[in-house]
């Protein structure tokens, strides 16, 4: 029987396998050593790699990311864990002004091979400062690559590719996927890479193209199954997997088939990343669009605490379903 | 507000009984060997030449600014030459440095090609960064210069990361991290020095206290007499020295370079100095008096070093003049190179954003 593992186990395996191969790779972050990281991704890694390569950092996100930048520019390949993606804001100078720009500002004469792993997304009742989806903030900055895996298989292949990439990569994991038994899947034991900038059709279909990221891929797939059974609507679900660089080709190819585009993201809609997908499609895919592009995004407020409010803020199955049905004049 | 005026740094000199040669100094409570004394004569002269080159490079830069030939801004290092030259010459050639927005001096002292620097300032394709960085982003990673930085304090944690590389790779290198007094109040200063301390990283934090963060005096921005007193927070060594005395800077940095190389953890060295020119190209300097500037100009690091070399009989007036002329010639050459270089092709604007391959939009 093929082994099936969780998203979290896939991430850990990716780091372990790269670290066994490449002595320049190390993990640094708050509570990553004995504790194994706030979500347990690096549990057991201290025992294998020792304190020199699994480094517990003081609570100094700015200096922590800066240290990673400095070590990357001088020949190491750090993986930094920022406990919650919200805390990237603390290190924004290091992310935006340093990591992203060093190569360009130095005329292409430096590389910053580092991965900033961080947990994004809500649904955990952690409220405004521990639940955000900030991918648009980082995807906007030239020089950064931004990766958002939605499955264990992708998590492993994308993380290995990210660590081996010569650019700073912001790798946004979803908290609700880490230990989710519902989404375990077969992940090959040997190391493999999924190229950054290659999306994947997670579900083939002919009636409508759904582009979704991270946990929203899972919700979109589930909604697609319901729409198929209940309404005979055949959805194609595309996961770009990396939002920068973005695989626009896979989106356009799908649009040519379906003529309809629905963008699903967890982040607040205003200024959200799917706005880029919608704008790009409007400009380059206009001839194939039979209907307005539909965006389904987080509501435009901070992530609230109360489960009632949090469910309202983050797109759920019923909202995704309703919006797609509207596109087909059904409700 | 505690520091009404800069405290004089206590010093003592111990000479050899027979030869009268100075064996070591006591600077701010630290016994520092007079390692400068044993330096090869040519290196001592090269240090003078580098100081001249910095002074003259900045003079040319200022002329370009006045004539409107520099597109952006520049921050001139005039008056602070002893700090960059003394410190960088005390490190090994292969050691790393990180620099600041006022970075031309560090770059020149680290051996950068003046022509490539000047071309970069003029935004030419032949510049260090192909015209993409300008004055505040000159770097030469292969020679260990990890770059100037437009963000005040932006290089403090980068230097700390490079020191982590040195420790992990056990390459016996150290990092000289230059930053200004203003940067010492950034949050990442605290984060980085704390990390360097707990992990015993081989980094020298060299604070160039030039008395002003743009217009804000250190007297307004600190409530401690010496910035090096911040060492107490991190349980590391630290001291304040005369940053306009290249011999003192050399000896101190040499002493502590070996200390940090030996795995004893970081050191915070505050170099008292002064920027003669305004903060950047538009600065009416309303925050300081002409008298104050005059007093510091009297402590001209180049004149002091020249006098030191002359008094010690190491060089003649003619010898000094020859060094000055050589420096002037290299600056002239750099200006000619830069002026004669082409601007970048606009088509390259999106190149060098990412390493390898093309960015898929």
Short note summarizing the structure:
The complex is a heterodimer of chains A (331) and B (361). Chain A is of the alpha/beta class and 331 residues long.
Would you state the CATH class of the largest domain in chain A? Alpha Beta
Counted beta strands of chain A: 14
Percentage of residues assigned to helices of chain B:
40-55%
Q: In total, how many domains does the architecture of chain B comprise?
A: 1
Tally of separate helices of chain B: 12
Widest sheet, order of strands of chain B: 4-5-6-10-9
Label the overall shape of chain B.
Answer: globular
Q: Which percent range describes the beta-strand content of chain A?
A: 15-25%
Helix content of chain A: 25-40%
Task: Kindly report how far apart the N and C termini of chain A lie.
Answer: 43 Å
Write the CATH fold name of chain B. Rossmann fold
- CATH topology title of the largest domain in chain A: Rossmann fold
Q: Would you report the number of β strands of chain B?
A: 10
- Provide the CATH superfamily of chain B: Thiamin diphosphate (ThDP)-binding fold, Pyr/PP domains
The coarse overall form of chain A would be globular
Using only CA atoms, what is the Rg of chain B?
20 Å
Uncertain runs of chain A are: none
CATH architecture of the largest domain in chain A: 3-Layer(aba) Sandwich
Superfamily at the CATH H level of the largest domain in chain A?
Thiamin diphosphate (ThDP)-binding fold, Pyr/PP domains
**Helix-strand pattern of chain A:** EHEHEHEHHEHEHEEEEHEEHEHEHH
Oligomeric assembly: heterodimer
Topology summary:
The complex is a heterodimer of chains A (331) and B (361).
Chain A: E1 4-5, H1 7-21, E2 25-29, H2 45-49, E3 54-56, H3 61-73, E4 77-82, H4 92-99, H5 102-105, E5 115-120, H6 135-139, E6 145-147, H7 152-164, E7 169-174, E8 185-186, E9 200-203, E10 208-212, H8 215-231, E11 235-239, E12 242-244, H9 248-258, E13 261-268, H10 274-284, E14 294-298, H11 307-313, H12 317-327
Parallel strand pairs in A: 2-3, 2-4, 4-5, 5-7, 6-7, 10-11, 10-13, 13-14
Antiparallel strand pairs in A: 1-8, 6-12, 9-11
Helix pairs in contact in A: 1-7, 3-4, 8-12
Chain B: E1 11-15, E2 22-27, E3 30-33, H1 41-66, H2 81-90, E4 96-98, H3 104-109, H4 114-121, H5 154-169, E5 175-180, H6 187-198, E6 203-209, E7 212-213, E8 216-217, H7 218-221, H8 231-234, E9 237-242, H9 246-261, E10 267-272, H10 290-297, H11 301-311, H12 317-340
Parallel strand pairs in B: 4-5, 5-6, 6-10, 9-10
Antiparallel strand pairs in B: 1-2, 2-3, 7-8
Helix pairs in contact in B: 1-2, 1-12, 2-9, 4-12, 5-6
């Amino acid at each position: 029987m093929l082994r099936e593992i969780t998203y979290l186990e896939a991430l850990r395996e990716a780091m372990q396998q790269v670290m066994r191969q490449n002595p320049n790779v190390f993990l640094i972050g708050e509570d990553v050593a004995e504790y194994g990281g706030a979500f347990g991704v690096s549990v057991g890694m201290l025992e294998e790699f020792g304190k020199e390569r699994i480094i517990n950092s003081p609570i100094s996100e700015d200096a922590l990311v800066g240290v990673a930048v400095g070590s990357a520019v001088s020949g190491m390949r750090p993986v930094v864990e920022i406990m919650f993606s919200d805390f990237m804001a603390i290190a924004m100078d290091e992310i935006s002004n340093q990591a992203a720009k060093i190569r360009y500002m130095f005329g292409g004469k430096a590389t910053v091979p580092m991965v900033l792993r961080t947990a994004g997304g809500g649904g955990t009742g952690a409220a405004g400062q521990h639940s955000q989806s900030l991918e648009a903030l980082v995807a906007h900055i030239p020089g950064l690559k931004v990766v958002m895996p939605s499955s264990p298989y992708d998590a492993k292949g994308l993380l290995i590719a990210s660590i081996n990439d010569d650019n700073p990569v912001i790798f946004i994991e979803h908290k609700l996927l880490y230990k989710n038994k519902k989404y375990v899947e077969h992940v090959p034991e040997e190391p493999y890479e999924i190229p950054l900038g290659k999306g994947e059709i997670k579900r083939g279909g002919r009636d409508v193209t759904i582009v979704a990221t991270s946990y929203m891929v899972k919700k979109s797939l589930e909604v697609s199954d319901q729409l198929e059974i209940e309404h005979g609507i055949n959805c194609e679900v595309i996961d770009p997997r990396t939002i920068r660089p973005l695989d626009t080709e896979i989106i356009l190819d799908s649009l040519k088939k379906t003529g309809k585009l629905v963008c699903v993201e967890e982040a607040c809609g205003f200024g959200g990343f799917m706005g880029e997908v919608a704008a790009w499609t409007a400009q380059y895919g206009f001839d194939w669009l039979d209907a307005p592009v539909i965006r389904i995004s987080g509501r435009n407020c901070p992530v609230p605490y109360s489960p009632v409010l949090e469910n309202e803020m983050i797109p759920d199955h019923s909202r995704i379903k309703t919006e797609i049905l509207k596109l087909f004049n059904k409700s | 507000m505690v520091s009404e005026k800069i405290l004089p740094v206590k010093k003592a000199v111990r000479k050899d009984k027979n030869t009268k040669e100075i064996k070591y100094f006591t600077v701010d409570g630290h016994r520092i060997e007079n390692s400068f004394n044993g330096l090869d004569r040519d290196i001592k002269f090269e240090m003078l030449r580098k100081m001249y080159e910095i002074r003259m490079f900045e003079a040319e830069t200022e002329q370009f600014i006045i004539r409107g030939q520099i597109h952006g801004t520049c921050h001139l290092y005039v008056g602070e030459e002893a700090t960059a030259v003394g410190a960088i010459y005390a490190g090994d050639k292969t050691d790393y440095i990180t620099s600041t927005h006022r970075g031309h001096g560090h770059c020149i002292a680290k051996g950068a090609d003046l022509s490539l620097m000047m071309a970069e300032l003029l935004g030419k394709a032949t510049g260090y960064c192909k015209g993409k960085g300008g004055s505040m982003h000159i770097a030469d990673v292969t020679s260990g210069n990890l770059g100037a930085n437009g963000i005040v304090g932006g290089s403090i944690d980068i230097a700390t990361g490079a020191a982590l590389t040195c420790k992990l790779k056990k390459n016996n290198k150290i990092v000289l991290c230059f930053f200004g007094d203003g940067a010492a109040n950034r949050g990442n200063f605290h984060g980085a020095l704390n990390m360097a301390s707990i992990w015993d990283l081989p980094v020298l934090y060299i604070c160039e206290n030039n008395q002003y963060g743009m217009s804000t005096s250190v007297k307004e921005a600190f409530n401690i007499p010496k910035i090096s007193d911040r060492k107490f927070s991190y349980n590391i060594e630290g001291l304040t020295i005369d940053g306009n005395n290249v011999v003192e800077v050399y000896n101190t940095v040499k002493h502590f370079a070996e200390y940090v190389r030996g795995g004893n953890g970081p050191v915070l060295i505050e170099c008292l100095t002064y920027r003669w020119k305004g903060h950047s190209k538009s600065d009416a300097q309303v925050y300081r008096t002409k008298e104050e500037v005059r007093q510091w100009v009297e402590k001209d690091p180049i004149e002091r070093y020249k006098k030191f070399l002359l008094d010690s009989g190491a060089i003649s007036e003619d010898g000094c003049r020859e060094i000055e002329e050589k420096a002037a010639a290299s600056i002239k050459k750099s200006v000619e190179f830069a002026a004669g270089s082409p601007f970048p092709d606009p088509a390259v604007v999106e190149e060098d954003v990412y390493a390898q391959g093309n960015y898929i939009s």
